[in-house]
Structures are given as structure tokens and as C-alpha cells.
């Protein structure tokens, strides 16, 4: 299990003086499971930087069906459209794992962007990473088998939860991965029979991280490689 970071990794990447100034203007909050933080085409009131919690970003099909496009944890933020000068969300954002986060009013955040060239450079890199990961997810949903996609999603959730245990139902996974519930049940059962996970009434425990990585599609490694390569570049 990975330790919970003291602060969000984006904020941690700022030079020390700017990091301290930014943190002084942030408000610590506790996010609740299912809490809606953004809706499509609605103004953003706050930007969020998860530290313990993580957020599910989804898009709607035919006005109702939700399809998962990304998870945001301590590696990222909610509100990246502000970097483009747009105070709107194109996705639905809700809390999937409750816990701590830092938030800032959008007007204050925009002022911080104007003051800090380091923030602008860093978040432009993060925006590039998000674009790459979204493209990877689109290809993954089209070409990879469900069991491998499920393993990838569980690894992503584990990394953001910083815990081997988290709660997510078959129904939710089916909606997020865009498949029938019976497909999730079969895929999860296969992973459980191989002793990679334990699953009971929505409670998931990762038993064998290495085995789960071997079962996941290549997209999991590609996502992590892209983040490391771009965000750590000078």
C-alpha cells in the first residue's frame, strides 16, 4: 500500500515559495462519497486538489447513461479548463472515494495562474497528460477485453485511494466501463478465482498487485509512463 501524500502532487511540484503561497490560499475540505463537484456546461465554483480522496469524471450518452473517462486523485486536479480560460466543465465530476482535498475559489485560482509562470507551465503539462490519457482510454474501450480493462481500472483506483481496499459496486463498474452488469460479474469472478482480488458486496481488496498488473491491458503502464515523462520533464 502506498503512503498518503502530505499534499497534492501538482502542488508539491511547485517551487517552494510559490507552493507556500498557494497552500495559504487553499481551503482543506472533506469530500463525501457521491458528492457532485461539477456538471457539464455549468460554471465551476471551485477547483479541487485531492490528497486522500479521488474523483470520477464521466460523460453522458443519450442524456442519461454515464461512461467513465478518467479518475482524478492526488496526481491531478479538477478544474483544468481554467487553464484554457474557460470556467466550464465538459464532464460530470463526483466523489468516488471520500477523504481530504484542498480547494480554492475559481477567481482566486485564476489570479494565481496570472501571478505564477511556474503554475501555468506545470498545468499545461498536466493538460497534455490528460489529453493523452483520454485518447488512451478511448482506444482501450474499443480494443481491449473487459477483464483487462477492469484490472486496469482497479489498479488506477488503488493508486488514487492509497489503499488496498475500496468500495465500488458491480452496477457502478458496469456503467463506468460501458458494459452490462453480468460482464462485470464474470470478469470480477475470474480475477477473484485467480486470487488477485477479493470482492464482497461492493467491497474490493487487492490481494496481488503484481498479478493484477500482469492481467491489466498495456494502457495502465502507458498512462503512468506518460505522466512520469511529461510531469517530471524540466
From TrEMBL:
Keywords: DNA-binding, Transcription, Transcription regulation
SUPFAM superfamilies xrefs: cAMP-binding domain-like, Winged helix' DNA-binding domain
Gene Ontology terms for molecular function: DNA binding; DNA-binding transcription factor activity
Keyword Transcription among record annotations: yes
Transmembrane feature ranges: none
GO cellular component: cytosol
Name of this chain's protein: Crp/Fnr family transcriptional regulator
Origin superkingdom: Bacteria
Ranges of residues in domain HTH crp-type: 144-210
Gene3D superfamilies per record: Jelly Rolls
Amino acid at each position: 500500500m502506498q503512503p498518503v501524500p502530505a499534499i497534492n502532487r501538482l502542488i508539491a511540484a511547485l517551487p517552494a515559495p510559490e507552493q507556500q503561497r498557494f497552500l495559504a490560499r487553499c481551503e482543506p475540505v472533506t469530500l463525501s462519497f457521491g458528492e457532485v463537484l461539477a456538471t457539464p456546461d455549468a460554471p465551476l465554483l471551485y477547483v479541487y486538489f485531492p490528497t486522500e480522496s479521488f474523483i470520477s469524471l464521466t460523460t453522458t450518452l443519450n442524456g442519461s447513461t454515464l461512461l467513465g473517462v478518467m479518475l482524478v486523485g492526488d496526481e491531478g486536479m479538477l478544474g483544468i479548463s481554467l487553464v484554457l480560460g474557460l470556467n466550464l466543465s465538459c464532464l460530470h465530476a463526483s466523489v468516488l472515494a471520500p477523504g481530504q482535498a484542498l480547494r480554492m475559489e475559481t477567481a482566486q485560482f485564476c489570479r494565481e495562474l496570472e501571478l505564477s509562470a511556474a503554475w501555468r507551465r506545470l498545468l499545461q503539462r498536466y493538460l497534455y497528460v490528460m489529453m493523452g490519457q483520454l485518447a488512451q482510454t478511448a482506444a482501450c474501450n474499443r480494443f481491449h477485453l473487459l477483464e483487462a480493462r477492469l484490472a486496469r481500472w482497479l489498479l488506477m483506483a488503488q493508486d488514487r485511494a492509497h489503499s488496498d481496499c475500496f468500495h465500488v459496486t458491480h452496477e457502478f463498474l458496469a456503467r463506468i466501463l460501458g458494459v452490462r452488469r453480468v460482464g462485470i460479474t464474470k470478469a470480477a469472478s475470474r480475477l477473484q478465482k485467480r486470487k488477485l482480488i477479493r470482492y464482497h458486496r461492493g467491497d474490493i481488496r487487492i490481494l496481488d498487485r503484481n498479478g493484477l498488473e500482469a492481467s491489466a491491458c498495456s494502457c495502465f503502464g502507458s498512462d503512468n509512463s506518460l505522466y512520469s515523462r511529461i510531469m517530471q520533464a524540466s
